[in-house]
User: Which sequence fits this backbone?
DNA sequence: CTATTTCATTGACTTTTGTCAATACTATTT
DNA sequence: AAATAGTATTGACAAAAGTCAATGAAATAG
């Protein structure tokens, strides 16, 4: 249990056996079935979820009732409504499972105590958020300056596993497109 | 000198006088005139810049040669090509001054030593990047799910100072629009 | 195994946004 | 003061993306 979590942690910052046990005391496992919610808009986000297995999505609902996927989460990724988690304000995103999933939860209090007690945990957190920031900035840059073909090709190159495991209309939503438009982009690309 | 920098730092994490002096030794002041580069695409980004005064923009150039503004930086903000700074790879962004600016630079080595030496600096860094992440996520959500009118109204509400100080075509670029389209969005809004 | 929901594609049409060109106004430079 | 560069707006038209509807295929549930 928590194999992938500690594998990731140790890859960034090696922990002693004792430190692992110390961290482990703050973790809670959670399983989700496909389509189950981890978080619903309006609720307070009380934990950060590390994904051991499965796939999730974080999304908001626009005025026409369409899902707008803000983030996918696959094995080894972290998913959360960080805004709600940090501020204690109601969540603006929904998070649910695209596939049956196994999660490792870190509650808010656990998170704060770990930050206090274990400098390596703060470093781990800092590195994670920095990586997430850089990735999101690349995504934003690509939205602002690339053609749809380039963006989709880029998505495939970056996340081949997501392309395999997730329906295309969700990728369209992640890209800010309708499913029809993504279908046409693909058609155009395969004709080349 | 460095007033705003330490004001911000202390607001997040109070420093003792000694700690302030310790941090100060790692800082370098820098002035930029309007239109001067802080960083050019292809160079290695060797420092993070805290803005004491003035306005800057970080942008990439798309295939048609247009600026795509990925970030504005005003007083109290931090600006950098974090990807290049962290990895040591060539920068993908240009950063230049929209107005004459006064900066506080933290070089890469200074950054790393401070992280080692002063836990409060790591916490400061973590809080900064977390805030930047949340802000960028909101921007992305707004791009994915809101109309242009809503996005522009939101921008005005969030950054009234930028609207005052920066030409509209730059705001258009930041929003991923042509200047003409933003002009028409504004026209539509004022007619209401 | 069958029925049903989900998914991807395609076509016809509409709406949105971009492109190009012209104009006018402002700020800056010489 | 005149010349220049930068800025915002508007119009006519083109291109891109969305909408709606129909179809068929694949996945899932009963």
Assistant:
């Amino acid at each position: 249990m928590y194999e992938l979590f500690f594998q990731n942690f140790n890859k960034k910052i090696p922990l002693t056996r004792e430190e692992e046990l110390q961290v482990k005391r703050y973790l809670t496992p959670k399983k989700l079935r496909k389509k189950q919610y981890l978080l619903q808009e309006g609720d307070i986000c009380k934990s950060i979820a590390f994904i051991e297995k499965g796939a999730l999505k974080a999304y908001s609902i626009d005025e026409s009732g369409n899902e707008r996927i803000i983030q996918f989460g696959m094995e080894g990724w972290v998913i959360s409504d960080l805004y709600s988690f940090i501020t204690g304000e109601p969540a603006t995103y929904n998070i649910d499972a695209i596939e049956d999933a196994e999660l490792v939860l870190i509650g808010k209090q656990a998170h704060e105590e770990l930050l206090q007690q274990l400098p390596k945990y703060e470093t781990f957190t800092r590195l994670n958020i920095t990586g997430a920031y850089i990735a999101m900035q690349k995504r934003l840059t690509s939205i602002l300056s690339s053609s749809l073909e380039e963006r989709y090709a880029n998505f495939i190159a970056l996340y081949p596993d997501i392309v395999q495991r997730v329906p295309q209309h969700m990728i369209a939503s992640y890209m800010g497109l309708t499913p029809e438009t993504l279908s046409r982009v693909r058609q155009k690309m395969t004709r080349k």
